[in-house]
Amino acid sequence: xxxxxxxxxxxxxxxxxxxxxxxxxxxxxxxxxxxxxxxxxxxxxxxxxxxxxxxxxxxxxxxxxxxxxxxxxxxxxxxxxxxxxxxxxxxxxxxxxxxxxxxxxxxxxxxxxxxxxxxxxxxxxxxxxxxxxxxxxxxxxxxxxxxxxxxxxxxxxxxxxxxxxxxxxxxxxxxxxxxxxxxxxxxxxxxxxxxxxxxxxxxxxxxxxxxxxxxxxxxxxxxxxxxxxxxxxxxxxxxxxxxxxxxxxxxxxxxxxxxxxxxxxxxxxxxxxxxxxxxxxxxxxxxxxxxxxxxxxxxxxxxxxxxxxxxxxxxxxxxxxxxxxxxxxxxxxxxxxxxxxxxxxxxxxxxxxxxxxxxxxxxxxxxxxxxxxxxxxxxxxxxxxxxxxxxxxxxxxxxxxxxxxxxxxxxxxxxxxxxxxxxxxxxxxxxxxxxxxxxxxxxxxxxxxxxxxxxxxxxxxxxxxxxxxxxxxxxxxxxxxxxxxxxxxxxxxxxxxxxxxxxxxxxx
Length: 508
What we know:
This protein is α/β, with parallel strands linked by helices. 40% of the residues lie in helices and 13% in strands.
């Protein structure tokens, strides 16, 4: 059902801005954009219309929007479902599929924006860049919300130049040296996001198209805070490359993170999980969750189970049915799968680990688990939302990147921020072995110690868990400071955005 926004009767010069927000499908984009929209409504008084793309929406997306309580100045507007079955090739990957869904869903965008009274701004995610053309016609400023790291944004803007400078037959991943993004730490080619690994692919063409439209935005909103990515933020604000008409002109940057769910509807199974955590010692549990779209093979699932069991550490594990070919296999149907862990976990695993482990089928209240005092580490796929959630709660990480830009994220966590250990893939077997999982879990949860310690083990490794936890907790404090209403950098950024929208409305 379409809920229409209430027309305003206040003075145009004093009324709070009216903002429309739209996200491409996928929980990794919808969750932070929804939190941003709620924050604009509750903390800054904006009148918000959240445009929901219903085409191929996952069960989790529908449940989230139907179960969340919104303030009276917040409205959800469902865009009509469209038939894309003949437009999307069967073998299409995520980027292509998302882009076509958004493109077709936006055929009604002009009429929707006019129906709600022509908002003062439209906030979009990267894959919704089709909105620029419509908003230009309506003279509505567009703000781009980046759901990934500032590092990925800076790389992406530089790839626009690199794509023109190097021969089209040379792949980015085959360049002889790391990519030297202006002002940033060089990025190893093996860490490049999946979408740009084959330059002639539809995925890469779509990605570069979306990125090329960023300079058209009135501003870029980032789900980060100043202390999390200081080097890259400084580069994108001050390095001449990003402000040169000959290369690219980057719009104003607003750091608005961390955007995490402060509250969420919790199911009966979720409450049971939290009750189990209540009975565990502080910082003793590793939370294992590979994201809303992440899956692994049967062989890999067995290795995780054995690795957790061999570590002897407490764990909460969100388990999904294995898929044999696609690491992002549940991206479009998250929340709709029905799992029985007994059918695909090793025989006897649940019984043998019942005193130290808690297995959850498909879904757990991630924000609440990470916030819990018993959670001492997060074994994650390194999606940006999960990183922001974990570090804003002071929880160190075990990095296991699966797809998209997650390899880059893992490298940032380990080498720049220093809050994670990275799981090593056995190249011969093509999996992360049980021994490697045991090693990493023991290092982080057990303060670096394990049964194999000897006198020659370096002090740094023995204390690694403590070091990671200390750094993560410092970031938690800085995240809390960024959100404070008395001078917090992220709070002030949204205040500035609100003021900018009011000034823009008056001047137009």
